[in-house]
Automatic annotation (TrEMBL):
It comes from Nonomuraea africana. NCBIfam families: PRK06197.1. Belongs to the short-chain dehydrogenases/reductases (SDR) family. PANTHER family: PHOSPHATIDYLINOSITOL-GLYCAN BIOSYNTHESIS CLASS F PROTEIN (PTHR43157:SF31), PHOSPHATIDYLINOSITOL-GLYCAN BIOSYNTHESIS CLASS F PROTEIN-RELATED (PTHR43157). SUPFAM superfamilies: NAD(P)-binding Rossmann-fold domains. The lineage of its organism: Bacteria, Bacillati, Actinomycetota, Actinomycetes, Streptosporangiales. This is NAD(P)-dependent dehydrogenase (Short-subunit alcohol dehydrogenase family).
Length: 278
């Protein structure tokens, strides 16, 4: 059995696939957590081609469906490292299976629920880490708790920015709660930088993206650093070169983070029992 059990969400493409491949190369047991069995299976096969004998497998996870998140979490036996990487960006208004605004529901609430459901297993690990792939786009995000569905006014970019702001608020609040509970859990966020992945869909011009943007391997570098560096203390927000970045004022607002935590608990029904009373 591998020494480190890692779960990477959205590991079937882009930054997540590069992250999963490199973790497997370094000897971790890796679960490719992906919503589509065909794409997930292809990712596993591609990792096995590059890293023969890798300890890698696929499990289905749709972050836009809380019943899928619960089913996934119920099947996990061990996890040392959770990389909340999956994300959608700048899409037209939609809702998740549970009726949440699509970008907030997928990028934040799905990962919030997943992390909370896996918390007992993470806390049983000797050195647990949670890495949340955020973005500097969080700076355009605003959280209005009176319009979480963005029914009054929807913008593709502002909705994406809001979900990435939620990723950062969650990262920092998780770290504070871990510390207060005396847990060794480290919670870290990253901004991969503009990276040539399916995130930017330009049809037949897709290969041209690589001329202007970072490669997926480069985009995965901060995730890998956050996941493996002994220098990580928790609560960092790391940029494309793995150096700390300054988050927005809102992202550092502890009252906002605490409120988001409560609201996310209400919406998902996931309680983070071990961190609930601190
Ligand atoms: N690329 C950039 O420039 C950039 C910059 C800053 C931050 N980021 C962040 O980096 C992360 C990875 O994105 P990427 O650039 O690698 O894009 P990508 O290639 O589009 O990868 C996104 C991954 O998320 C998965 N995903 C989407 N919705 C999901 C759901 N409901 N359930 C489970 N998985 C789902 C996708 O699965 P499918 O293949 O099934 O769609 C895919 O595996 C995202 O969180 C993104 O916000 C990217």
């Amino acid at each position: 059995m591998s020494e480190l059990a890692a779960i990477v969400t959205g590991a079937n493409s882009g930054i997540g696939l590069s992250t999963a491949r490199e973790l497997a190369r370094r000897g971790a047991g890796v679960t490719v957590a992906s919503r589509d069995p065909g794409r997930g299976g292809a990712a596993v096969a591609s990792i096995l081609r590059d890293v023969p004998g890798a300890d890698v497998g696929f499990r289905r996870l749709d972050l836009a469906d809380l019943s899928s998140v619960r089913e996934f979490a119920a099947g996990v036996e061990r996890v040392d490292l959770l990389i909340n990487n999956a994300g959608i960006g700048m899409v037209s208004r939609g809702v998740t299976k549970d009726g949440f605004e699509l970008q907030f529901g997928t990028n934040h609430l799905g990962h919030f629920a997943l992390t909370g459901l896996l918390l007992p297993l993470l806390l049983a690990a000797p050195a647990p880490r949670v890495v949340n792939v955020s973005s500097d786009a969080h700076k355009v995000g605003r959280l209005d708790f009176d319009d979480l569905g963005l029914e009054r006014r929807y913008g593709k970019m502002s909705s994406y920015g809001r979900s990435k702001l939620a990723n950062l608020l969650f990262t920092f609040e998780l770290q504070r709660r871990a510390r207060r509970a005396g847990s060794a859990l480290l919670s870290v966020a990253t901004h991969p930088g503009a990276t040539a992945t399916n995130f930017f869909s330009v049809g037949p011009l897709q290969p041209l993206l690589r001329l202007f943007l970072r490669s997926a391997d480069d985009g995965a570098a901060p995730s890998l650093y956050a996941a493996t560096s002994p220098l990580i203390r928790g609560g960092e927000y790391l940029g494309p070169t793995s150096k700390p970045l300054r988050p927005s004022k809102d992202a550092l607002d502890e009252a906002l983070a605490a409120r988001l935590w409560e609201v996310s608990t209400e919406l998902t029904g996931v309680r983070f029992q071990e961190f609930a009373h601190n």
